[in-house]
Amino acid sequence: MTQAYIVDAIRTPTGRRGGGLAELHPADLLGEIFTALVERTGVDPSRVDDVIAGCVAQMGDQAWNVARNAWLSAGLPVEVPGVTIDRQCGSSQQAVHFAAQAVKSGEQDLVVAGGVEVMSRVPLNSSGDPELGYGYPFAGAGWAKHYGDEEIHQFRGGDLIAEKWGIDREAMFDLAIASHANAARAQDEGRFDSQLVRVAGVTADEGVRRSSDREKMRSIPPIRDGGIHNAPLASQIADGASAILVASERAVTEFGLTPIAKVHTASVVGSDPVLILSGPIPATRKVLGRAGLTVDDIDLFECNEAFAAVVLAWAKDLGVPQEKVNVNGGAMALGHPLGASGARLMTTLVHEMTRTGARYGLQTMCEGGGLANATILERL
């Protein structure tokens, strides 16, 4: 079986809701990243076998296969197919998994994987909002038979995880403050420079706060009545796009490419859909087991900061040292443009591995419906 190599990984800055990327059509935003990826790697775009992009709210501007629409909007070859997938928040991480699987199988040689979400234009939960007249996804007879009338919501899931794993709220504020501080340091030290593509005049992630007032953070009411998490303890709604070029050994040789890492091992799991967000724990165990590695073998971790409790419960359960996790900030500071975040985390991870000389990096993220992906990268 051939290896699946990462040749390059890039992203837009993440724009705040209503910020510098809000007026861009999602196909144009993702198309900008596709164009930049082709230019940076020097590949002939007509030789790309497939384009796989993640997007969660596939309606309105993001409907009807935004992966294909973005490729065409960028003026790239019409002969290259595209497909849009939805594995909730891990959609673009799953896009990389599918790309790597296609390459490792020998069926394809060059695959572009990435994702997009412009949440300023297509709001959070749009595709499952009964107020829009489309019904509610957790209301069928079969669902009721197995899960009754349990409230299914990510906000509740985050709170349930905090309760189940005994996560202290002050520890959550510590994590949020560290997320912003780490992201600010990364910006100041130019750690993102090699991965960012300037779009619409936006040159830096817009959600990073240079200072954090703990008392002010405490004073903000919880997201749900009686809940634990408030806005500072949750990922920021954001706009963004990301893309990664995955290549086979044959393509690397034929096109004279210089890969920066390989997809060592990948896994995906299902978990309790009521807790929703606990999946990174079994996903990490599974990917480490398949790789024959332990937590101690991993140099850097990216665990998506959907909610503070998710990261802290995952680290507590698995014994992951917090100083190795999200060293350049996470989604509480950098934002979480849903469909783009999986490849955004991977982009940030692989560039940090290159900068520090790390051998192994592990990425995982919780996903709606009780799902989680995990990926181990090995630097070359």
Automatic annotation (TrEMBL):
<dbReference type="InterPro" id="IPR002155">
    <property type="entry name" value="Thiolase"/>
</dbReference>
<dbReference type="InterPro" id="IPR020616">
    <property type="entry name" value="Thiolase_N"/>
</dbReference>
<keyword id="KW-0012">Acyltransferase</keyword>
<dbReference type="Pfam" id="PF00108">
    <property type="entry name" value="Thiolase_N"/>
</dbReference>
<dbReference type="GO" id="GO:0016747">
    <property type="term" value="F:acyltransferase activity, transferring groups other than amino-acyl groups"/>
</dbReference>
<dbReference type="InterPro" id="IPR020613">
    <property type="entry name" value="Thiolase_CS"/>
</dbReference>
<protein>
    <submittedName>
        <fullName>Acetyl-CoA C-acetyltransferase</fullName>
    </submittedName>
</protein>
<dbReference type="InterPro" id="IPR016039">
    <property type="entry name" value="Thiolase-like"/>
</dbReference>
<dbReference type="Pfam" id="PF02803">
    <property type="entry name" value="Thiolase_C"/>
</dbReference>
<keyword id="KW-0808">Transferase</keyword>
<dbReference type="InterPro" id="IPR020617">
    <property type="entry name" value="Thiolase_C"/>
</dbReference>
<comment type="similarity">
    <text>Belongs to the thiolase-like superfamily. Thiolase family.</text>
</comment>
